[in-house]
Specification:
The complex is a heterodimer of chains A (226) and B (76). Chain A is mainly β and 226 residues long. Chain A contains three helices and 18 strands. Chain A folds into two domains: 151 residues, Uncharacterised protein YcnI-like PF07987, DUF1775 (Immunoglobulin-like, Sandwich); 64 residues, no CATH class. Classes of the chains: A mainly beta (226), B mainly alpha (76).
């Protein structure tokens, strides 16, 4: 049986499938900077009723020392460049395991070292291939252009207690919960930030202390307690 | 300018974040709960009452920032 390959734009997928939450996401959450760790992608949906049969994850050059873990979804194969560096990993479901409908959830895990770049996001371009029981294939690109690409949030590596950082690049106020949401409190001079509403009330009630607003600027020195 | 602000706040908070060297270890603890009363001619009254204040009650948090949330060097 001959398969038909279709590249489906994001608007078409989201509007016709009615599953706005459908995407390939980072199931493992934020990752600490400059640390070898596992990163897991979650494939929450297939394509308009068709099961997922193949997922390819392109590896950003700054994510190094990559290893692929075998998934229940299927075996992983790798692509390498001329320098023998892994540039992409593809998991493929074995023949005969195709679901007759889109009810599967899959997790695909890699291990590698995150860049030493806290307060940034690392984009992974993912290509998802689905196939109907009749053999029709659909390919969806999660690349940040056609569809939202999974982004790994890189947080500062830290220890329990006080940690001091010099912020390399500006951090917008709305991104503070993303990068520092798990901190007890963050200080820049006499201004403090917390995601905890009770601690925020204490900040507001303390004389001489202000709530940190406007985000962080490059080269700001901050104290963070975890 | 920021350093001056920093010092001013540190001074303001110093009193609240000092150590406890002046606290007396031998001070008698004050009663911390309402014990059931025991009449001389009978058993305790309502010994399992539901509204007793126990000494194990957690203290309420401070309305202002506690010292352990102030960064190093912020308080003397």
């Amino acid at each position: 049986m001959q398969s038909i390959r279709i590249l489906v734009p994001v608007a078409f997928v989201l509007s016709t499938a009615g599953v706005a939450a459908a995407h390939v996401s980072l199931a493992s959450g934020p990752a600490a900077a400059n640390k070898s760790q596992k990163v897991t992608f979650g494939v929450g949906h297939g394509c308009e009723g068709a099961d997922t049969v193949k997922v390819r994850v392109a590896i950003p050059p700054t994510f190094t020392g990559v290893r692929a873990l075998r998934s229940d979804f299927g075996k992983a194969t790798v692509e390498r460049d001329a320098a023998d560096v892994i540039t992409a990993i593809t998991w493929e479901k074995p023949d005969g395991e195709l679901l007759d409908d889109d009810y599967g959830y899959y997790e695909l895990t890699i291990r590698g070292r995150t860049p030493d770049a806290p307060f940034t996001r690392l984009t992974f371009v993912v290509t998802q291939t689905c196939r109907t029981a009749g053999g029709v294939e659909t390919v969806v690109q999660w690349d940040g252009v056609e569809n939202e690409a999974p982004e790994l949030v890189i947080t500062p590596s830290h220890q329990a207690g006080w940690n001091r950082y010099t912020v390399a690049a500006a951090v917008a106020e709305e991104d503070l919960p993303t990068y520092l949401g798990d901190a007890l409190i963050v200080w820049r001079g006499t201004a403090a930030y917390t995601s905890n509403p009770n601690t925020l009330a204490q900040i507001q009630a303390t004389s001489g202390v202000t709530v940190l607003t406007g985000g962080l600027a490059a080269n700001d020195e901050i104290w963070v307690k975890y | 300018m920021r350093a001056l602000l920093y010092l001013a706040v540190a001074g303001a908070l110093a009193a609240g974040c000092g150590d406890n060297v002046t606290a007396r270890d031998d001070a008698a603890p004050s009663p911390t709960f309402d014990a059931p009363t025991e009449p001389a001619d009978g058993p305790p009254v309502n010994p399992a009452g539901p509204c007793l204040d126990r000494s194990t009650d957690l203290p309420r948090p401070s309305t202002t920032l506690p010292c352990d949330l102030l960064p190093p060097g912020f308080a003397p």
